[in-house]
Write a structure and sequence with these properties.
Muramoyl-pentapeptide Carboxypeptidase, domain 1; protease; two-stranded antiparallel sheet; 417 residues; Aminopeptidase; Peptidase_M14; zinc ion binding; Membrane-bound Lytic Murein Transglycosylase D, Chain A; alpha/beta; 3 domains; G-D-glutamyl-meso-diaminopimelate peptidase; 8-stranded mixed β-sheet
Length: 417
């Protein structure tokens, strides 16, 4: 692996984001390895005792990866105590102990390897969340917070795993999911940031935005699928190579347009937001009115409901857990919908209005067919909400992420009362 001046692509964005988060770079994330990136790499290499070539070679990349994952390995010496280890590596004691939960006293770890958690956050919000980036985040979070459970609820056509994160041990089960839409990677980042902050607050035994996190942990079980459509997001962020078996079809379905500006579907050209078994035929009829009758970049729900592995995985997760409430996050709208087709549960409207009050979003009463939210309400007779963030006609700019997070944290925590 080698990146140098002139290199381009999402991988360069990740490297630039990493250098920015550590203070080696103070300009925008461009995805182009230019002079400022080369200089930032040199500074980083010097700080790690490497030859300052300005080229991201294998050794440099391995060090970057270690910091990205948020931990190092250390063999405990005879004279060490937990406090001495904290002082040596400038890490937090609570996080150090949590990261090494399998051990008890310091005597148990003499001459053994332990995890040294870095101070930096694992979830970085300066670049769009790709599938590989999400996987690294989950790996790093699982090591830092071993109480965080996760499982694979399914795989995509391209064999990408669909992750479900579990937090808490309460009887009330709540389901959050994001990014049915390939254009919605920022909502994956939103949920990953929430997961990290939630785990951090629980570890530090402190309130989370004024909420008693320990009480919430014992009352609720949160199941979170941060990325429903990894294949679609990959196409949106990185395009598609000629080696991909779907290449010619994808290019045709996208009408040779820029993938980053309009690819919503999964890799088989199915709009996952329309593939659930609720008023599915009506949804097909509505798509036909838009002259969409076959696989496309958006608005085609498929031949039949649940014909796609992603929607089957979500349905499986619902059936296994029997959730009490659900939030579905995607982009384009700045609104919240709570009805299934054109019906609703009485309790749902009150909560939707509460979410609107804390976020500034509007109620969306538009009829929906084949959606995840509508399917959940219809099948389980429990409240569910579809939250669309960002301008209705424009992809969310990553520079607006902090504002997005501040707006939505009150919704994500507002469910847990």
């Amino acid at each position: 692996m080698l990146y140098s001046k002139g290199s381009k692509g999402y991988e360069i964005k990740e490297i630039q984001s990493f250098l920015y988060s550590l203070g080696y770079r103070d300009v925008s994330i461009t995805g182009v390895f230019e002079d400022s990136t080369e200089e930032a790499v040199r500074k980083f290499q010097l700080s790690k005792g490497l030859l300052p070539t300005g080229i991201v070679d294998k050794t440099t990349y391995e060090i970057i990866e270690k910091i990205v994952l948020g931990y190092d390995i250390y063999v405990v010496e005879k004279e060490d105590t937990w406090k001495k280890i904290c002082d040596k590596f400038k890490c937090d004691l609570d996080t150090l102990l949590i990261s090494n939960l399998k051990y008890g006293s310091i005597e148990e770890v003499k001459n053994k390897e332990i995890i040294i958690p870095f101070k930096n956050d694992i979830v970085r919000s300066h670049v769009e969340c790709s599938y590989e980036m999400m996987r690294k985040m989950i790996k790093g979070l699982k090591i830092r917070y071993p109480f965080m459970e996760h499982e694979i609820i399914g795989k995509t056509v391209m064999d990408k795993e669909i992750y479900c994160i579990k937090l808490g041990k309460g009887d009330i089960k709540v389901f959050y999911n994001a990014a049915h839409d390939g254009m919605s990677s920022i909502t994956s980042l939103l949920l990953m940031k929430f997961i990290e902050d939630y785990c951090k607050a629980y570890t530090m035994k402190r309130d989370f935005k004024g909420k008693d996190i320990e009480g919430i942990w014992n009352k609720y079980t949160l199941c979170i699928v941060p990325m429903v459509n990894p294949d679609g997001i990959e196409i949106n962020l990185n395009g598609i190579t000629k080696k991909n078996p779907y290449y010619s079809r994808i290019v045709k379905w996208n009408k040779e347009k820029d993938f980053s500006k309009g690819w919503h579907s999964n890799i088989r050209g199915i709009d996952l937001n329309l593939n659930y078994d609720i008023a599915f035929e009506k949804g097909k009829s509505e798509s036909s009115k838009l002259n969409v009758k076959c696989p496309s970049s958006k608005n085609y729900g498929g031949i039949e409901a649940f014909c796609e592995p992603e929607t089957r995985a979500i349905a499986y997760c619902m059936e296994e857990n029997k959730f009490d409430m659900m939030l579905c996050y995607d982009t384009f709208g700045d609104n919240i919908s709570y009805k299934y087709v054109d019906k609703d549960l009485k309790v749902s409207k009150h909560m939707a209005e509460k979410f609107c009050k804390v976020s500034g979003y509007k109620i969306n009463n538009k009829k929906e067919y084949g959606t995840c939210k509508s399917y959940f309400i219809h099948k389980y007779k429990k409240p569910a909400y579809k939250i669309l963030v960002g301008n209705e006609n424009k992809k969310y700019d990553i520079k607006e992420f902090n504002e997005l997070y501040i707006t939505n944290i009150n919704i994500l925590l507002g469910v847990l009362e």
